[in-house]
Amino acid sequence: MPLRGRAGSLVWCLLGTLLVHGLAWGAEEVLRVSIRGNRRIEEDAIRLRIRTRAGQPYSAEAIREDIRRIFEMGFFTDIQVDLQETPGGIEITFIVQEKPAIKEVAFQGYRRLSLEDLQKAIDLRPGAFLDLAQIKANAEKIYRAYADKGYYAAVVEHRLETVEANQVQVVFQIRENERVYVWQIQFEGARAFTDRELRKVMETSTRGLFSWITGSGVLKQDVLDRDLDALTAYYLDHGYIQARVFKPRIDVSREGIRITIPVEEGRLFRVGRVELKGELIAPEPEIAQLLTLKSGEPFNRSQLRKDVDAIVAFYGNRGHAFASVTPETRVRDPEQAVDIAYAAQQGALARIGRITITGNSITRDKVIRRELRLAEGDRYNASLLTRSRQRVQNLGFFEETNLTTKPGEDRDTIDVNIQVKEAPTGRFTVGAGVGSESGFIVLAEIAQQNLFGRGQSLSLSGRLSGISSDFVLSFTEPWLFDIPLSAGADLFNTRREFINFNRDSKGGALRAGYPLTEFIRGTLKYRFEEIKIGSVAETAATIIREEEGKSTTSSLTAGAAHDTRDNVRDPRRGSLSSLSAEYAGSFLGGTNDFYKFIGSTLWYFPLPLDSVFSLAGRLGYAEAYRGRLRIGERFFAGGVNSVRGFRPGALGPRDPATGDVVGGGKELIVINEVIFPILPSIGLRGVVFGDAGNAFATDKGYDLGDLRYSAGAGVRWISPIGPLRFEYAIPFNRKPDEEKRNFIFTFGTFF
Q: What does each C-alpha distance from 641 to 143, 145, 427, 433, 459 come to in angstroms?
């Protein structure tokens, strides 16, 4: 500001001089125009701003305008004009003084933010001309960077240090002070909703127990601005169409930050008359069934948009790709009502033109096309296009699947472009653990889900410990004979050393599956297994001693699964439910006779802040129809996919004489999880969970009073080397003979 004041006074003195010379010289001609004093600004750039030219009549008004135009360039602190009278005319020299240049930008006093963070926060760079307004603006940007981290009491000042001739160093001096959290959010003028209800709408929140992890309680201006929009939308979605949410007051004290948000609610408006008009492709009652906004209910702007989308989808699913629906509203203020008319235009019927697939360097086009629910030439259907994209994504071969449409070459065609980004489909997974009985345990799996880009899967898994070994080789062809008939085979060989006996088994299975509906798939499986029970101790339970020797299981299993998950790799909504029935008997060539039923369900529900709640349940029942149900077919609870916090197989009926866990003919497992982001940018997520379950004797009911419970937390990370899982579980109501296992750790890699 002092520079501007000095420059202004010089200009006025100069203007007086010019007026005197103008009176003396009259309309003499300008002989020459020169420029002096510029070092960094090119002379041509200055001349472009000057209108006075050699050969023109001298004008004091023109000189005054030239001075103003040069000042507007923003590069100079002072401009003087030297006028020399010569026999040939007047020589004019503009003498400029450039602003100092910024040689360096430095920061002092910072500790909570890194130097890189501070440099990213500002746009002031070395080499620029000194601009005090810009420096003050950048000091504010540094302050905002601190405020976004909770340091709302930070102070940012600046000073200038001369380092060379006409060059300065800008130093930002920072006093960070202590982090300040939001401790109270209150509303003025809110009557229709409580403060608690309105706070739930906001992303900004008060400080909580886990603020150091979640960042809650930190005030960010951009987030608060979005919250104001969200609050306004909340009122509009509850009938308060005249509601206004004003700029909040922010008070900082020792307790923290108090945010006060003024609200002007207005009156409650309800839906009045609702009608459909325009080009209706179905009877009005049929289309009206799609509408959720009903007469007499509070007006809801978001629901109005959903109703419009529902009508457009209805038209789109019947081939009208270019349909449009315009909601026309009329406010009847005295009645506090909003009349709604949905004006529809059907557009022309469309069909699918060209379908183009890009981005698949490994996966064959055929593998993708067979998942599509529309083919070239079919009538356009918006829902089937959405389902097609979902099916391609659920193959598990792609990180992203984008489906876009555009008008085709013909006016009535829609071209479809499917762009995929392939993900690693090979997997090498290793898990490790320690058990009090088995010692160190290593689990490994190598698998390829998209063998040679054909969609086939091949895997080999193994588990080794001091007392056990398991090996399984599996292969699956998802489209046998180019129809959606899946076929697969498994080979396995397992060995387990128990305290009182050893169990060895080997065998194989053949599998087949076929879609019964869009979301239900039927399966059929044949299994043959040879079992050997040996090294039985004299102190072993009676059921174990009676099973010593060899036996065979030959069984058929029929099942069905209903899958509506939105994404099989990272589901956020939908469910996966299955039911299977297995029958084993001597008529199939085996010696074990039993039947087994297993039902399971897994549901996903999206939560705020990109979190997901999942609820899983499993119910099992098995019984021998000849002899006794063998121990290998019984249910045992506990472990990573059962009741965490208990050793695998630690729960279930026990032999009354020896206390050995001998398993049961019934099983009930319930698993609850909430998965939330910790660092979304790197795929780090947290999980809190609660498990319940047990196995029960066949001749007894599912005793809910005998369930075992556990709870815990952990982190899951899709790291550069693959998926990592760390969980800690605490078992409840554990009996002394039920072994616990608190810590769970697995890791792996993709290829």
A: 48, 44, 20, 15, 20
